[in-house]
Design brief:
The chain has 27 helices and 33 strands. Strand 17, helix 12 and strand 18 form a beta-alpha-beta unit. The protein is extended and about 110 Å long. The protein starts with 19 loop residues before the first helix and ends in an 11-residue tail after the last strand.
């Protein structure tokens, strides 16, 4: 009873004169049996009597809810029901079920914890000396205790609280098992309830199920209880009915589909329970479920290890369902039925996504049956049949494919599909095929055993799961189009049912390695290499070979070796084979692309594996080029350098409201004035801010607000800077631009630094408003003007003046200021001259301060930061900003061509679609090509 720091909870006893005598009788029995004792504990939980049926004596129950609130939970789990039932289905012929008599009361509570179990009744204050019902940690503690008691019998004994199941494969073995179990119980002086024990039976009742050596079924009592159910008429009764029969849903195919009408009216919250209405449709569903749950055959077989599993799945608009079965000598054995109602969000999924989700639900629900066994999946939806052999251009389906990799799925078969299902599959975007590249692993095996290599589409007893890995991608040289490919590549585009997994992409194609690295070919390839042959010839035939040559090379077993040191300071020399140029590429592929040997890791890790094994001239340069040219590494690797691109400050223009920035902030919680957004306009010279609360951020509201609150007060600007939101980038704003004659600059997508002055104020404004608003009123717009004035009247770090001073030529008057001093001017025009001089000084000094601050920021921003420049025609990858999973690429799947340069902004074109987009240089990654393969051109 570990508890958090607390004051002991104490309650007065319940007053119930009808049960006073019954309570006293039970208290006397407990005292006589030594189960309780009188207490002086500060704890006091109320106890009461719960009547039983058939006029049997009532049960004493203690309300430990207050104690449970301060108890630290014990995380020890109880056995999972499905796991326990499947453990009993391993071919056992004899079962025994032992039941402890008042199991909780046979274990004593430590003396220090007894005061926490104290309870009160009208007759007095008592505390338990033995385990009692009610404390939240009692089941976990009892289960752990029973595990310890039966530890010596775990091979044949299963424990679920006070139920002990003993299973054996022969009668004599079972008798021996019973003796061992009885000895373990007797050692702890535990007493059994003889009337509830079953010994050496071939069918045993466990957790509401009847278990035999081959099958599992609901108990007769459970069937009778279902027959006795009355038709529900309220929401509470409906939920009780569904909860009761759902315990046996695995015995009923399409359970959730049949029960869907009742599910629709049962999933109501408390504030919507008045919408509950029981109709004829629900009544028919109720009787249909009762009929299915009480009609033979109502049983499931246990799996047989010698036969593979088959999982047939299907998805409808409202539910997923599946059946797990085995074909045993021509007879079908059903092992499990699964069905689940789809949530409103899941019902909006596309058909392939629903079918993939169904497979995932079934495998998760049947995990204890499927895990570690070979399973064939049967689906009537062809497009998902290949999701385990190749990546799918769908995040949900690809996520399912990754999640089910732990299962030993031999094959996904299509059944009862329409004639055009394959064409439908091929019409969807495809990615690289899986497991079609040799990485050099089979070079260690004789050719005759190559057929014995594991295939992810065939069952294997030694394989538990497969990893979905992508092979190396090859990108054609610039200027090569799909029309330049040879006949073989064009024939590959006519995909049939036999080659439905062929990828037909004109830009990026996944190709098998032209040669597999085989160390057995080293001697032959060295003989074909001119440079190596020349060295071997000099060492073999020269009577006085060059001392440098003989000290650097040696011939061992007919293979030229090179003496090397692993580090410059190392004195230990290694002798490694000289790798011929014809084998360099295959070795690099094996040591980088192979998931086992390379795993697409860095240059240093790759060099640390190659250097002690092989040598060739310019080895590190070749390794560097190979890794840099890896397309997958370019798409997926995370750059830990500073984002490329130097800072490009906007030159200051010493004219207020000549260059302004504009952006929306929000949405916020709707205020009493129905405002949800703030349109923020900032003068980039004075940094004077105007913020207008608005109910919406539509294009017409934006244009009207800009005209009324900015142009009509401060004049038309020369340049307006905004992002590319639809409220700024539209025909109405373009018309306003042409009408008033200003220049509208749209910032680069996903690069808010272009309009950084406005973005920085937005961040400050949100923080200040959140401090001031009354949250229960959502009146943030009441404080908006005050916050903006406080900002405008404060000295800005960049200009060293307040925005108010730079705009009006004087500091603002604040409530804390003393009475103002009055100036006398001979003529009214003298004030204008005075103001003009003041503003001229302010503006000149502010411009100088801005330029100094920009130089300061640029110096530190550009330090150790790359500033790559690209040319028209260069091919680059663009960063992906859409929501993506952790296993998805960071950069585009296909390179794009630069068509326009305005450094640091570039316009790139996607060749297949012709679409053009602007990107900042920090969002581009150059495509690196180490070589051009003539065979692919």
């Amino acid at each position: 009873f570990n508890t958090v720091p607390h004051s002991p909870p104490s309650f007065r006893p319940h007053r119930n004169p009808h049960h006073r005598e019954e309570t006293q009788r039970l208290i006397d029995e407990f005292l006589e049996a030594g189960m309780i004792q009188e207490s002086n504990s500060p704890y006091a939980a109320p106890a009461f009597i719960v009547p039983r049926k058939d006029n049997r004596p009532g049960r004493l129950v203690v309300d430990y809810r207050a104690l449970n609130k301060i108890t630290i939970p014990d995380a020890s789990p109880l056995p999972h029901m499905e796991d326990l039932l499947q453990e009993l289905g391993k071919g056992y012929k004899y079962f025994s079920r032992l039941d402890l008599k008042s199991g909780y009361h046979q274990f004593r509570i430590p003396t220090a914890d007894r005061p926490k179990t104290a309870f009160v009744v009208s007759q007095g204050h008592y505390e338990f000396r033995v385990f009692s019902m009610g404390p939240q940690n009692a089941p976990a503690a009892f289960q752990k205790t029973m595990y310890a008691v039966m530890k010596s019998c775990r091979e044949f004994c299963h424990v679920f609280l006070d139920d002990i199941i003993i299973c054996s494969k022969s009668f004599n073995e079972h008798i021996n098992h019973l003796k061992l179990a009885f000895d373990a119980l007797a050692k702890q002086k535990l007493v059994l309830n003889a009337s509830k024990c079953e010994l050496a039976v071939q069918r045993v009742v466990v957790l509401g199920h009847t278990v035999s050596d081959t099958a599992i079924a609901p108990t007769i009592d459970a069937i009778q209880a279902i027959l006795d159910l009355k038709e529900p008429r309220t929401l509470k009764e409906t939920n009780k009915f569904l909860g009761g029969i759902a315990y046996y849903r695995k015995f009923v195919p399409h359970f959730s589909h049949i029960a869907a009408p009742i599910h629709r009216i049962s999933n109501l919250t408390k504030d919507r329970k008045h919408l509950f209405k029981w109709t004829v449709e629900h009544s028919n569903t109720f009787h249909a479920l009762k009929h299915l749950l009480t009609t033979a055959p109502l049983f499931l077989h246990f799996p047989i290890d010698d036969f593979p599993l088959h999982l047939a799945t299907d998805a409808s608009g409202t539910a997923t369902r599946g059946v797990l079965f085995q074909d045993v000598n021509g007879e079908r054995h059903n092992l499990f039925y699964h069905s689940k109602v789809l949530s409103p969000t899941e019902q909006k999924y596309s058909v392939p996504e629903k079918e993939a989700l169904t497979i995932y639900h079934c495998l998760q629900r049947m995990r204890t049956l499927v895990l570690g066994r070979t399973v064939y999946i049967h689906t009537d939806h062809c497009p998902i049949c290949g999701m385990l052999q190749k990546p799918v251009n769908n995040r949900r389906i690809e996520r399912v494919a990754n999640l089910i990799q732990e299962y030993r799925i031999a094959e996904m078969k299509h059944i009862n599909g329409k004639s055009n299902c394959l064409a439908d599959y091929l019409s969807r975007p495809s990615d690289d095929p899986l497991f079609d590249v040799d990485y050099g692993l089979e070079s260690k095996l004789p050719c005759s055993t190559s057929s014995n290599l594991p295939n992810p589409c065939q069952p294997s007893k030694n394989i538990v799961a497969y990893m979905t890995l992508r092979p190396r991608q090859k990108i054609p040289a610039p200027g090569v189009s799909s029309l330049d490919q040879d006949d073989d590549s064009s024939e590959a585009t006519s995909c049939t049912s036999e080659d439905s997994f062929t990828t037909c992409s004109p830009l990026i194609t996944t190709t098998p390695s032209p040669n597999v690295f085989d160390s057995n070919q080293l001697s032959h390839e060295q003989a074909q290499d001119p440079a190596i042959s020349r060295i071997i010839s000099q060492l073999n035939h020269s009577t006085h070979p060059d001392s440098t040559l003989s000290s650097s090379f040696i011939i061992k077993s007919g293979i030229l070796h090179k003496f090397i040191t692993l580090t410059p300071k190392s004195k230990r020399r290694l002798c490694v084979p000289y790798l011929p140029s014809s084998m360099i590429r295959s070795l690099l592929t094996a040591m980088h692309d192979d998931p086992f040997q390379g795993g697409h890791f860095s240059i240093d890790k790759m060099m640390s594996k190659i250097r002690p094994r092989y040598w060739w001239p310019h080895m590190k340069q070749d390794v560097h080029s190979h890794v840099q040219a890896c397309v997958l590494c370019q798409q997926y690797n995370y750059s830990r350098q500073k984002k490329p691109g130097h800072l490009q400050p906007i030159p200051p223009v010493a004219i207020p409201f000549s260059v302004i920035g504009m952006d929306f902030c929000g949405p916020f919680a709707e205020s009493p004035r129905e405002n949800k957004y703030v349109l923020v306009v900032t003068d980039l010279f004075t940094h004077f801010v105007t913020a207008i609360p608005l109910p919406t951020n539509t294009a017409d509201i934006t244009a009207l607000t800009l005209f009324r609150h900015i142009f009509c007060r401060f004049g038309v600007c020369s340049t307006l800077i905004t992002d590319q939101g639809t409220h700024f980038n539209n025909n109405l704003m373009s018309a306003l631009q042409h009408l008033l004659g200003y220049n509208h600059i749209l910032s680069t997508p996903y690069h808010p630094q272009t309009n950084g002055v406005v973005e920085r104020f937005n961040a400050s404004m949100v923080v200040q408003i959140s401090k001031l608003q009354q949250k229960h009123h959502n009146n943030w717009d009441d404080y908006l003007d005050a916050v903006v004035f406080a900002y405008n009247s404060s000295k800005h770090k960049t200009t060293q003046y307040s925005p108010f001073e730079l705009l009006f030529g004087r500091p603002p008057k604040l409530p804390i200021d003393s009475p103002p001093q009055y100036y006398q001017f001979d003529r009214p025009s003298n004030y204008f001259v005075h103001l003009q001089k003041i503003l001229q000084v302010y503006h000149q000094q502010a411009k100088l301060n801005i330029m100094n601050q920009q130089r300061y920021h640029k110096k530190y921003y550009d330090y150790n930061r790359r500033d790559p420049h690209y040319n028209v025609g260069d091919r680059v990858f663009t960063k992906i900003f859409a929501a993506r999973g952790k296993l998805n690429p960071r950069y585009s799947a296909e390179p794009k061509i630069i068509v326009q340069i305005n450094h640091p902004t570039y316009t790139v074109r996607h060749e297949p679609t012709g679409l053009e987009h602007r990107h900042h240089v920090s969002d581009l990654r150059p495509l690196t090509l180490a070589y051009v393969d003539n065979d692919s051109i």
